[in-house]
Structures are given as C-alpha cells and as structure tokens.
Write a structure and sequence with these properties.
The chain is of the alpha+beta class and about 300 residues long. It contains nine helices and ten strands. The protein folds into two domains: about 90 residues, Phosphorylase Kinase, domain 1, CATH 3.30.200; about 190 residues, Aminoglycoside 3'-phosphotransferase, Chain: A, domain 2 (Alpha-Beta Complex), CATH 3.90.1200. The strands form three sheets. It has a five-stranded antiparallel sheet, with helices on both faces. About 45% of the residues are buried.
C-alpha cells in the first residue's frame, strides 16, 4: 500500500496508477503508464497510453479541483480560443490512495518557456485573448473564489499577514529592494476591489500551464485553482514572462482598469516575496528569478505613480 507523506508526493507511483486504472477502468487496462517530463506540485501526472493522462492530487487541499474540473472544463472548452484538458473520467480512492483522481486527454505541445516563443508580443496578445474569452464565459453557478482556489479570485488581502512577514524577512536579508515601496504596492493592492460581477479566472496563468507548438499558444492546462471572482490574479504573467512591448501588448489586450492592475501587482508581489524568502539562501537561480519579478513590479508601480 502507498504511504502518502506530509508533502503528499511520495507513494504516488506508476505502479499505483496502473493498479487504479486496472481496477476502476478496465477498458484502459494494460496501457503503458509513464511519468510526464515536467510535473506539477498539486498533482502527480502520468501518461496513460498515447492519448491520455492520469492526475493524482498530492494532498487533501488539492482534492476539490478534481470534481470542479470534471464539471466545468467541458462547459468552458467550446468558448475558448485554445484547447484545455478534455475530461474523460473521474477515479475514486483505492489501492491505498485516499483521494479522487482524474483521467484527462493528452494535449500536445511544450511548456511556454520564453526561448520557445519567437514573437513574445504576439504570444502576449494570444494569452490576453484567452483570458478575455475565459472572462466572457457564462459564470452562472460557477465556483465562487475561496479555499478551493486558494483564494485566487478574491482580494489579495487574504495573504496580508504572510506578505508583510515576507517583506520583513527580505528587509533583514537583503538591501536590494525598497521595502517601503513594496509596502506601498501592497497597500495599493488592498485599497481596491473588484466591483463588477464575478467572472471566470484560471488562477495560475504562467509558462508552465501554457502550451505552445512552433512558438504559438495552443493550450492552457491545470485549472485546479479556477473559479469565478476577480480576474486580477490572472495578470501576474505580465511581470513573470513579459516586459517592454510584450507587456504592453498583454495589457492592451486584457483591457483592465488601474485598480485591477494594482491588485495584480499585489498578487505578483505576494508570490515572489514568499518564494524568495524561502529560497534566498538555498537556490540562487530561483531566487534571482523571483527577485527580478519584485524589481519589475516595483518599477511598474513607480511608473504609475509619477
């Protein structure tokens, strides 16, 4: 029997997936089960044959995404300009594994790392068009932002204490950042709210959840943190992946108001400060990437207030 450790990942193996499939979906029994080259944190993902994937949540907090995606992805898919994961089956706990799990159709493509995208401004427009189309989908009965979305789609105020703690830690560890300006960015994010009706958001728009073929956006994956609410959380890619003309193209395409951009800067600051405070002494490459995001966010805020 597998042992699910506190981080949720150990014990989820290809053999476990094979046994779950054999027991619950005999029509796919015997298909090869292999790990994907690039895996996520919330789920362990395995190729199932040539056309499917099996995704197993790594912890209880990620379980609500299984039923949510199973219900809503088929309703969203016809209205989006790129492919999203086809829903094929929902598995049950078994073989010592304690959570529901899912079978999805495999989507071809590569993760959208910058070196795979020749025209970054054009790619930024395509990502923006995907988000605009997602926001236009019918939100009636949709899952209102909350714990299931890790509070994406709500005000970033949920992470107020954590953000302030991380900024204090960074203040003690490095003199690279103007922490007073960072606190100003955070205050600006908390000073605004989404006053319109809730709209669909993805919740984790980044290069790892976008697929490209020949440099063109072809798919968006991992809707585990999706829901309806404030779309500001979906704009953080503006500082993680885009700059200059590409960032402006993205901003023009999504056409959001200044308050939404202020909250988006808050979301970007929270995540970058959190990760940087955890890895600043242990992972120089990762730390440099998140420090760059903070630099970009602070510079962007400065431009909007001068």
């Amino acid at each position: 029997m597998p042992t699910i450790t506190p981080d949720g990942r150990a014990g989820i193996t290809a053999d476990l997936v094979r046994r779950l499939v054999d027991r619950q979906f005999p029509q796919w029994s015997g298909l090869p089960v292999t790990p994907v080259p690039v895996d996520g944190w919330d789920n362990r993902t395995y190729r199932l044959g040539d056309t499917m994937t099996a995704r197993l949540p790594t912890a209880a907090g990620y379980v609500p995404a299984v039923a949510k995606e199973h219900r809503w992805l088929p309703r969203l898919a016809p209205h989006l300009p790129v492919a999203i994961p086809p829903v094929l089956a929902e598995g049950e706990p078994g073989e010592g594994y304690p959570y529901p799990w899912s079978v999805r159709g495999w989507l071809p493509g590569e993760t959208a790392l910058p070196h795979r995208v020749e025209d970054l401004a054009g790619f930024a427009v395509a990502v923006g068009e995907f988000l605009v189309a997602l926001q236009r989908c019918d939100a009636t009965g949709g899952p209102l932002a909350g714990a299931h979305s890790f509070y994406r789609g709500t005000s970033p105020a949920y992470y107020d204490e954590e953000t302030r703690r991380c900024l204090e830690l960074l203040k003690a560890r490095t003199d690279r950042f103007d922490i007073g300006l960072a606190e100003e960015v955070w205050a600006a994010a908390l000073a605004t709210t989404w006053e319109k009706d809730p709209v669909w958001f993805h919740g984790d728009v980044g290069s790892g959840n976008l697929l490209v073929t020949d440099g063109q956006l072809t798919a968006a994956i991992d809707f585990g943190t999706c829901g309806i609410g404030d779309p500001a959380c979906d704009l953080v890619i503006a500082w993680h992946m885009f700059s200059g003309a590409a960032r402006q193209a993205f901003r023009d395409t999504v056409a959001q108001d200044d308050g939404t951009w202020a909250r988006a800067r808050g979301w970007a600051l929270w995540k970058a400060a959190l990760v940087l405070s955890e890895c600043i002494d242990t992972d120089p490459e990762k730390a440099a990437d998140h420090a760059r995001v903070i630099d970009e966010v602070l510079a962007d805020h400065r431009r909007t207030t001068t």
